[in-house]
């Protein structure tokens, strides 16, 4: 009874509030020092306020005398309260008492993205516990020492990359997060030859409220891809086919109040990501995790090269989480796997059972099917690159975790033929004929090959085709257009590295029209797969 009474009172209280005051909230970076923002309702301006701790979020409560119009827009004011920039559209209040955190000049806060069909079981963590929401674009603001930051950006390739301290603020439609101090540095390898580089943010692990339980996030520049969409789409399809991987979403980044760029924010593959994404919260203590290896720097083919860690170049096989390896032999676990792979005869009539005991075979085959479908040439099959191997102590098998999906959907060259069969996929790659996990399992073992072909056609029919993806691509195109335009307007000419000279025209064309466009690739590849199994 008391509980009922209480909720009744609360409802009454919130109705009074709704009738009384409306809160307007906008993220705004003034074009000049001293400029401020206001909300305009019925041609009347109401000043918005910010503070050192809430910047760049501006807000005000406006009293509703019952005649307040639901239609409004934001205005930037000069120091002398002259309107210097007005939004060119009117917004409509959707909630009686507050707006979401909106962004100045962006009409749409939440995009209605057409969902993608779930082809295999969804293994993502609860969306409610995630910062990665593709339907909206977050804003990040870093406050740094300007000299330190300039040095960091001008020396992206230094052996020891400069790490600097930064204040951090993240704002999306419903969440504001700030941290007094994060570590900030340039990220990536080859991509550091470009003017726009990727960034990394490391959160203090001892922080009471870590950033959505992340300890590291990467801001991927997507600079080799004028559409900035390829990686996003690849992640969407991976999610549809139930392959656990790092999640991501887009963010605009500002540093000291100035535009830095538009990025894909992704979680780094490390301990907290394994707990959240691979184990979906069922492992809570880092010491219960299995061994994790980062493979990359090309040609990490899982070929057995000897019994000791020292037999393996660290650049290609890097232990990230020790798991149950002895401290002085951090490769022991994965070496056992490589030895089994070397010794295994692909004529084995119990191949599926053999590998199911050692590997999440289905997950691996799905990941390989997508590498082929999307032409992910900088990945495992083609180059032995950009993946992790994780020993899952709960299922007691290895899991293949793919990462970095910018070189997909016919990006970066024409070495790929959309019409080519998966049987010849990789023949122009770095590791053709020297990739036993592909050649022995997928190509040479009859049963695993049949399983692979079934997976390949299931994925093609279910999600990897024009009909399933183009609606979502169109929605992304609309969502991203203004952000990409903004990114292209940023002058990076004082930075080292190459300028690719992208344009907004190229953004649109590389989604739909170019010979190498995403849409053409998907159309040709999916049709070719359909013919391969006729
Ligand atoms: C102001 O109050 C009236 C009467 O309750 C309501 O119809 C109107 O939507 C409110 N305006 C805003 C902007 O909330
Ligand atoms: C962080 O992790 C804890 C424990 O696993 C969980 O209860 C909580 O919901 C997570 N918070 C977020 C924001 O993801
Ligand atoms: C797609 O198919 C068309 C028609 O066969 C062909 O002209 C084009 O070169 C193909 N494009 C790609 C990217 O494979």
From TrEMBL:
The keyword Cell cycle does not apply. It comes from the Eukaryota. Keywords: Capsid protein, Signal, Virion. Pfam families: CotH. Residues 1-18 form the signal peptide. This is Spore coat protein H.
